Amino acid sequence: MKIGIYPGSFDPVTLGHLDIISRAVKVFDHLIVAVMVNPQKHCSFTAEERITLIREAVQDDNIEVVAFDGLLADYAKMRQATAIVKGLRALSDFEYEFQMALTNKKLNPMLDTLFLATSAEYMFLSSSMVKQVASFGGDISAFVPPSILQEIQERLSRRSFDGNTGNRRGLS
Ligand code: ADP
């Protein structure tokens, strides 16, 4: 069985992430969406919330959503995964992702990294953009799936979108 892992913060999950998930699951028999729990990185949504949102948006027995902290290369070995899946939006994503791919390969020689190019319509889309737009009361319906739109809107309206500074910035 071919197992792939798609890691990320998913804070919150967007249509860009879901596009990568639906394409990656065609390449593997089983896809593990690994939601990173990193206490150092402040997220707007808790790990449980991020996992629940993905589970609500994705209904496929071949997709598993898990919380993950630690070394991805070790987790991949434990789960017998052969590849990490990454989405690439722009050249600016590439340098860091390339470095990570080489590091993970060194740590776990059985592990490859599969880069999927973003679909053109999601090239601009990131979780932080969704949070910025929502924080100003903007319409995020083109960025997240309809099934979880209201949940995301409600949670973000109760919270500041920028967990690091608490500031509203960017689109103002
Ligand atoms: P971000 O905050 O950048 O959206 P994540 O850590 O949640 O970051 O992203 C997880 C993975 O999904 C990364 O490989 C990232 O490049 C990819 N990704 C995020 N948004 C998109 C998108 N719009 N199109 C393609 N890939 C994406």
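^ adenosine-5'-diphosphate complex. The helical segments are 15-24, 47-57, 72-78, 91-107, 127-135, 146-158. The pocket of adenosine-5'-diphosphate is lined by residues 8-10, 14, 16-17, 20, 86-87, 89, 93, 118, 122, 125-128 (CB under 6 Å).
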